[in-house]
Amino acid sequence: MIQMAQEPVFSKRLSELLQGFNKRDLVALKQLGGDAAEDAFASDAPCLVEVSIAAYSLAKFLEKPYILASAEWKDFEQTASEIVSAALKDAQAGKAGEACRRMHSLIQEIEALSKRLGRFTTGVVDKARIKAATQIYAHGASLGKAAELTGASKQELSHYIGVTRLSEKYQTFGVQKRLSVAREIFK
Known about the structure:
single chain; 76% helix
């Protein structure tokens, strides 16, 4: 749930989601996906994870001409925009719980469309969960915490991180080296 101090961030991210989706701005939606995931980790706010997952998922839909050309897209687009707009109004009115519930319903709508129109075994929401979890992991969370916060499969996340070589980006030190550095700092 969103704490009082996080409500402005939640409202801001919902506003960015609405704008990015209505403008069909792929770059903004993908950036928002990462930013909202980082915010979710920093504030331990699952509602911001929902914003991240929605942003990544909607960007994925917008990349696929066959989805945009489908008979179902227009109705989905209107429904999604209405849900995000209502969530934003709720968040701005201090009803973060209701806004979070609306975002959860948007994720369900996205998942349903992905199942109906998707051409792959892994749905767009599952892929978005992995992307959000990867972003959270990259900002210092453990693999388990990133998976827990996003609802991603720990096994799939581990595989994805291994394939992307994200884990090679960060140098780790053994206990002796860490103790040595700590002693040096606190002399």
